[in-house]
Each structure stands twice: as C-alpha cells, then as structure tokens.
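From: lab user (bench 3)
To: helpdesk
Subject: output format question, protein + fe (ii) ion

Hello, I'm new to running complex predictions and I'm not sure whether the block I got back is the full result or only part of it. Here's what I submitted:
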Amino acid sequence: MKNENLYNYILGIADNNLILGQRLGELCGHGPSLETDIACTNISLDLLGQVRSYYQYASKLKGDNVTEDSIAFLRKEKEYVNVLLVEQPNTDFAYTIVRQFLFDIYNNLFLEELQKSHDITLVAIAKKSIKEVSYHRRFSSDWVKRLGDGTKESNLKVQEAVDNLWTYTDELFHLTDADKAMVKEGIGVDVTVLKSKYYKIVNTLLTEANIVIPDSKWFQKGGKEGIHTEHMGYLLNDMQFMQRTYPNMEW
Amino acid sequence: MSEEQIKSLEADFDARIARDEKIEPKDWMPEKYRKTHIRQISQHAHSEIVGMLPEGNWITRAPSLRRKVALLAKVQDEAGHGLYLYSACETLGVSRDELYEQLHSGKAKYSSIFNYPTLTWADMGAIGWLVDGAAIINQVPLCSTSFGPYARAMVRVCKEESFHQRQGFEIMYKLCNGTPEQKEMAQDALNRWWWPSLMMLGPTDAESVHTEQSMKWKLKRKTNDELRQQFIDQTVPQADILGLKIPDTDLKWNEETGHYNFGEIQWDEFWQVVKGHGPCNKERLNARKGAWEKGAWVRDAAMAYAEKQSNKKIEKVV
Ligand SMILES: [Fe+2]
Ligand SMILES: [Fe+2]
Ligand SMILES: [Fe+2]
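Helpdesk reply: Thanks, we reran it on our side. This is the complete output you should expect:
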C-alpha cells in the first residue's frame, strides 16, 4: 500500500480514542451521580465520533473491503496500537478520572500540533476534535482538583490512581516507525517535543490538587507496538463479540 | 386554616385544572395532589435510570461503531430524562437523595419492564421499538398534564422517546432484512418482549386503583386498557412490515370494533415482577445501589471541595 505509514499513523491516533471510548462506555449507567454519568458518556461519545472520522479516512486509504468497522472490530490484539494508559480498567472513579486527565492533557497538546499537519483531512479532524477535547481536559482537570483537594479519602484514592497510572505516561511520547516517517513528511506530530510541556502542566495541576508527583523513573511501554497489558484481551473480547460470533453481517 | 377556607381553596384549585391552567410548584395544592405527583414523577424518574441498565448492558458489545454511538447516546438520553424528572419532583419539596433512598430500599417502584434481561443485540431493537413505543403512548398525554414542571419535562422527553422508537425499529428492520440468523434473532426478541410490553401499560382497568383521581388531575387521559389497545393497533402493522410474527395466537383484526383482538395477558407474571421477583429485579436494584454506594466518596469529596472553595471566596472578601 502506498500510504502504509499514513494508515498506521492514523491508527496510532484513533486506537487511543477507540479503547478509551470503550472503557468509558462500560461505566454508562453506573456513575457516582447522574451528572458525572452523563459527562463520562459524553466524552465516550466524542471519542468514538472522532474514531469514526479517523477510521473512515484510513479505510479510504486502504481500499479493498476495509471499513471503519473492520478496522475497529476485526483486528488481532497485536494489531491495535493504542497506548497502554487507555486500556487500563475502571478500577474506581479515581482511576477513571486520573486516566482521563493524563490522556486529555496529552491529547489536547497533540491536537494543537496536528492542526498544523500537511494533511488536510487530519487538520479537519483535529480542528473538530480539539473543541471537544479541551472540554474533556477541563472536566478531568476539575475532577482531579475536586477529588485531590476534597476529603482525606478522596485524596488517597487519587494519589493511588496517580501512583499506579504514572508508569504509562512516558509511552505517550514514543515515536513508532510510522510516526517518524510522518513527522518527516510534515504530516505527523513529533510528540517527543510535547513531553516537557506535558509534565509541566500535569505536575502543576496535581500539586494544586495536593497530590504528590511520583518520582519513579520506571515506565511501561509496548501498546504502540501492539504489545498490550493483560486487560486488553478481555476488552477486545467484549468489543468484538458480535463481529466474531456473526461474521460478515451488517447491523 | 379553617375547613371552609380549605374547601374554597380546593374548589379554586379544581376549577383551575378544569380550565386547563398549569399548577406551578409555588401554588397552593392539596396535600394529596403533592403526594401523588411525588410518587408518580419519582417512579417515572426511577424508571428512566433503571432503564439505562438493560441497554447499557450492550454498549460494550454493540456490533458497529455507528450502533455503539447511537446506543450510548440513547442511554445517555435516558439519564437526561431521569435528571429532568428528578428536578421536577424536587420542586414539590423532596430531595433527590430521599428519592434515591426510596428506590434503593424498594419502597419506590419503577417500570417492571426493566426487570427483564437483554440477551441478544436484537433486544436493543425490540426495546426501542416496543418499550419506548409503549412509553410514548403512556407519556404523550402527560405533555398536557396539570402540573407545570411535569408537563414541560414530558414535552422534551417525548420528543426523544419517539426518536428512540424509530431507532429501535430501524435496528429491527436491519435484522429482518439480513441473514436468516439475524431475522431469527429479531423474532426471538419480539417473542420475549411482546407480552411484557403490553403489561407495561399497567394493570387492566378493573384492577387499577388510581385511575379516577388521576383523570381529574390529568395525570391520565385514557385508561390502561385503552392505551394498551392503542399500542397493539399501532404495533401490529409495524410487525407486518418487519415480517415478524407477534407471539399471540388469538391476535386477530376485528372488523366490527376496528381494533385488534388479543389473547389473555398473564397477570400473574406481571404481579410477580412488580412484587420484586422478576428475572432481574435483584440485579437492577443491586446495580443502582452499588453505583450509589461506590460513588459516596466522590459525592462527599465534591461537597467538601465546594465548601472549601466558598470559604476561600469569603476569606478574600473580608
Ligand atoms: Fe426516557
Ligand atoms: Fe420514559
Ligand atoms: Fe427512551
């Protein structure tokens, strides 16, 4: 395929949204309040809407019989290239919020840059998405502050979530081969450049929320290369259930 | 207040309703009116949020991105309906926490239909088509009910419910025009949801306790049996379009009455579910209670944080 790198680059962006949208979808109807329930569902809806735009674009590049749904539902685990952060489970509301926060700050910085891409379709998607994502960022940041600076119990819960999810942050700034190729062509974002800004924003906000910044220098990686955590198989099992059980049907 | 004064207030109140005026939360109202409305509106609100669960069950497994997004949006709409209805109820002087407490303790009821399991993707179609369809029939008359906040909430809710119903029908339509396996899935869903949907319109008139008073207050415009007939008459031709068979051997068009005749409803099953012994009563209530209990620390934190913030503002002023 001529645009192999671009295709892979798009999946590298969109798989994050798909898997995070899927995780948030699990919570619908089970939130701590109606308002947070509605807000988390909103974020899920935004992310999945963005996924559709990306995959529709990717399916055009790929041609053949590839559709947004075959990309979303019919790959093997190793072919999903989302970061490990987004596949982490909804252990409790603190994990959900902290996962969201750690991703949103990145995503917002990323989309700001993607708007400068030489690929006009990606620019259009980025422009539409960043409005939504800046709202997500505000929502998750507010909740990190609220929970971090709420009660003793909520502070401990957020601290625990930060301590456990921190190890997945560094991977956000890794470049795959497809990423490198796209950076070279002026299409992709050089995420390595975003790293220091990211940690500055995250650290400032966490400090404001009375959360201690983990000083661990040990990070996990692999998602971007298709090597996932043990959670991923179960997530895909659910997500692909219909397509695998009833192949080649339309819904 | 003397008895005479109350009598005259009541007479005024009844006259206002008869003139089709809206009763607003700050207006005087008989205690029974307030209580009845708290009961009915909260029951309706509970139905919306418990109703999120059976469909929420399929969000992670929806068969396409388009369907996943539509289902999420639908379930989110139901949360929104719950929100408006709780707010309408709160104007009558009861807090949302109290209402939740009544739901969780089993004191308050919610629509029994949500105590049935969703076993296949076709259930998402059947619920939208039949359950939202029956809900519309129940709720359209409430758009002109006497209590202002309830009537206004219902206008908004009904618009969305009819969208849900079309969406459900469309899911069914796709299945019925798909592979034999898909069509069979659709038929199976209809078989399971048909009778519970008929029961959803409430016990038969002979057994219905509140009807007369409710008619006067415009909480009801037609009897349960009339609504049920309306639902059947409307739905049978839709099943024909789908090429599905309604699971009732007595179902037959009656030229004389201009309505469908239908078979006997198993009211024993209805009462069994109402009394808490349906297939999923425990699961539904536990899911709601679980979400509430697990969310307690979050709500406490939000409250504590808000308090700290407002103290900070006060300190700044002084
Ligand atoms: Fe609803
Ligand atoms: Fe409803
Ligand atoms: Fe609905």
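A quick orientation on your result: Residues 97 and 140 of chain A are 6 Å apart (CA to CA). Let us know if anything else is unclear.
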